[in-house]
Write a structure and sequence with these properties.
- With 269 residues, the protein is α/β, with parallel strands linked by helices.
- It has a single domain (3-263), classed as TIM Barrel (Alpha-Beta Barrel), CATH 3.20.20.70.
- It is 46% helix and 14% strand.
- It has helices at 3-14, 31-43, 63-74, 79-92, 103-109, 111-121, 137-146, 162-169, 192-202, 233-241, 245-262, and strands at residues 19-25, 49-52, 97-101, 125-128, 149-150, 152-154, 174-177, 207-210, 228-231.
- A 9-stranded parallel β-sheet has the order 5-4-3-2-1-9-8-7-6.
- Strand 7, helix 9 (192-202) and strand 8 form a beta-alpha-beta unit.
- It is globular and about 45 Å long.
- The two termini are 22 Å apart.
Amino acid sequence: MTGRIGRAFETAARARRGAFVPFLTSGFPEPDESDRLAAALCAEGADVLELGIPFSDPVADGPVIQRATEVALRAGATLARVLDQARELRARFQTPLVLMSYLNPILRYGPGRFAEDAVSAGVDGLILVDLPPEEDPALWSDFRGAGLDTIALVAPSTGQARLPLIAACASGFLYVVARLGVTGRGLEDPSVALLLERCREWSALPRCLGFGIGLATPLERYRGRAEGAVVGSALLETIFAGENARARDRNVRDFASRFLSRLAALAPP
């Protein structure tokens, strides 16, 4: 594996644990505090930091991320501001940065301009929630050509024929959706273990579990089958629970420490 994302997963593997990939809605709860919380996660050992680009009409986000997005948009969040945040983080940390976005904000910004500005800001990868790679392979190829890893989502509902097509377009890591439905909600799908094995048949990329992952998730059942975990709603809930900026910073750091301590459960036996 090459690039910062690949090296981060390799570092986690050498430490005999899964990679910690926290998600923050950029601009939440307001721009300056968002910057501080993102920096706190980098300082506390995030292997990859995922920044969500706020969008007014999400289709995959559960109630917690939707609420955080609404707060961020009211506070003035824009795609340009997300890129500024990435640029400031890159000046301080080597933590790989991934942007998670719906397609609409990128189309409005201009895909070519976005790719150029994202790479210039130090962004390493991109997740497009509502654009499967086979629907616009040229756009995905353009993003990869610009220097962005294109991280693809696969789910228990992904058909046998689609999985190799998706895997062929992906780079960085495979985002494996652990349950059907929106983020943070729904029952864990019992077929996700088989999905993880199928992913390995078609790709050597790290497999990262997401959607509904939290401190209570029994990660040990995915030992040797997943190389990392994305945690979003559970982390954002701790921010909502903080009564002031100091408490929110403390909550984020405590969550990061506790979740990192559990990731040894993913290490191969």
